[in-house]
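User: quick one, fold this
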Amino acid sequence: MQPMNEKHEIPFIKCSGCAAGKSRLKFYATCEEAVKAGFASGECTYGCVGAGSCVAACPLDALTIVDGTVQLNKDKCDGCGDCVAACPQKLIHMVPDDVSNFVPCSNKDEEEVAIKMCGHSCIGCGDCAEACPQDAISIVDNCAVIDYEKCLGCAACTVACRKKIIVDTYHDLAQIKPTVAFVRCRGGLHNHEVYAAAGATNCREAAALDLDGHCSFGCAGFGDCAAACRFNAIQITNGTALVNHELCVGCTACVHVCPQELPVIVPFKGAKMVACASQDHPDKRKELCWVGCIGCGDCAANCPDGVIHAEFGRAVITPDKCEDCNICSYVCPAGVISAREMPDFTYVQVRAMAAQKGGAAK
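Assistant:
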């Protein structure tokens, strides 16, 4: 065991989710026993089972389990590595004690499986590796791995990660984000009441119901998206999901759980969006929803950049091409076009962090 003043490495647990059956397996005496008990269908076979063998193995009480997740007290840890040997899932890795970026996942499943299994999972998309200016990240068995001999601790991977799972101890994800989520519905109160009266308890059950007299394309209001959000950026207000763009980091978790496909990922720079996803005829839409797009076309006719078009008789804006001129908001008689603002200093920071493989921010 090393003296405290010679510490060079500390343990990092490559799992921060609960998809490996923690609620069932954490009651076993050891993690090895829990793993031998087996995983249920749909559980992650690579994750932490939560029985705490690493905690028991630590001679200095540097590890604890908080809300089902193993936490490290760096001030107590001496880098002995006893916890590494205690983990049957091989989730604990020794890393330099001064590094700032971590990928807390060991899942090896393909993207389509991993993305539905755990909101904390790496999906192996490679965006982080492509963005890294030092070539310090590689994709191994569908999971990102950081080479700390090359890593400089910049925010390139943090910003590029489409699921925003990379732990960054230096930078605030709420500040260095190029995108956020936007919910394409601002009605929903009547919808939620209809679905609840019909016996639905979550959004997926609601979407499967065939009911008359309400918008079947709007928010069901049960909060599946809010439950999936790791950043508490979504709340249900009057039966409709609303995104707090100050807290949202664009991780896409809400996008994957919404059966109505209402949340979309849009630029954070302040573009306009139409808060309606109805596919009903405009006349029927007016009968069912008092806050939806009425399909008048005034916004498209007056857009100087031609970035607005019609789908199912409602307006759709291409946000990455929007110059935020406000003309569409001004001419919209229904007030359905939503605008966001972003502080100048944040936009400058986002651009500065966007350097790709040796290129300079533009």
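User: anything notable?
Assistant: The two ends are 49 Å apart (CA to CA).
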